[in-house]
Amino acid sequence: MLDRGGSFPREIGKGGIRLTATPPETARDKLIVALDVPGAAEALELNRRLGDEVRWVKVGLELFTAAGPGVVEALRASGRRIFLDLKLHDIPNTVAGAVRSASRLGVDLVTLHAEGGPAMMRAAAAAERGPQGSLRLLAVTVLTSLDGSEYPEVYRAGVQDRVRAFARAAHEAGMDGVVASPQELGALAEVLPAGFLRVIPGIRPVGSAADDQARVATPGAALRAGATHLVVGRPITRALDPAAAARAVLQEIAGA
After folding, report:
1. How many CA atoms are closer than 13 Å to the CA of 210, on its beta-carbon side?
2. Residue of 121, 110, 117 lying closest to 87 (CA atoms)
3. Of 35, 80, 238, 243, which has the highest C-beta tally within 10 A?
4. Is 15 helix (H, G, I), strand (E, B) or coil?
5. Active-site residue, from 14, 30, 58, 87
6. At CB < 8 A and 24+ separation, what contacts does 164-172 make?
7. Domain 10-254 class?
8. Residue ranges of the domains in the chain?
């Protein structure tokens, strides 16, 4: 599990809190900014505006479908680490092939749906994943946009029970981590070892709108509950100054 960073100096001026030092490197290791934009031009401009504040970016379905591997290569060339969030869900052979392709792209994290089953996850875990298995695989448990009311027959035991079952299966199948909402971090702690990655979307800094996320938390609350990485999109990417918004989130992370 990643170490938690300490606090860093601040000043209070007419514009409110202003950071006066670079956030700790451990804080940067925890923040993943979601580049959920419709094309390569928008993604690369947003990446430029984020400057040196951010180490990790997420490329999801919208951007990858529009721009393909080329945008991943361009982001990597800029020095970013890449979370390729494609939520793979298919027969085992197909998913294993997709994992091999992602490995050749040089990305660091890839998602697949735990609902695809243990055989699919085992095939993905056994696929070629770069030098010393450098590509890490994350099993998506239950999407943060769902609260269980959408399919009452499927979720009759509750979202947390479903998350526990998927997380346990993911660990047994050889995944490196899971994706879940911050509200399930307590449930994950019951079934996962301490070093297992917990990559948590649905993160909203204090004062931010929930948007279409049903199960959310602040950065500090998620980290204190056991998150290893936080995925933040719109509160940063739709800000007038994305770099400043990222610094504010890093401040919350460092103080957790």
Report:
1. 11
2. 110
3. 35
4. coil
5. 87
6. 164/188, 164/190, 164/191, 166/114, 166/115, 166/139, 166/141, 166/142, 167/114, 167/139, 167/141, 167/191, 167/192, 168/192, 169/114, 169/118, 169/121, 169/139, 170/114, 170/121, 170/139, 170/141, 171/196, 172/118
7. alpha beta
8. 10-254
Give the span between the Cα atoms of 195 and 3, in whole angstroms: 11
- Phi, psi for 222 (deg, rounded to 5): -65, -40
Tokens of 168: 């346990």
- 134: which 2 tokens? 């450098």
Looking at residue 82, its amino acid is I
What are 150's two structure tokens?
Answer: 């959408």
Tens digit of each residue's pLDDT, the chain (256 residues) = 333 233 333 333 333 333 434 456 789 999 999 999 999 999 999 999 999 999 999 999 999 999 999 999 999 999 999 999 999 999 999 999 999 999 999 999 999 999 999 999 999 999 999 888 899 999 999 887 877 787 777 766 788 999 999 999 999 999 999 999 998 999 999 999 999 999 999 898 865 655 555 566 899 999 999 999 999 999 999 999 999 999 999 999 998 8
| 87 labelled catalytic | yes
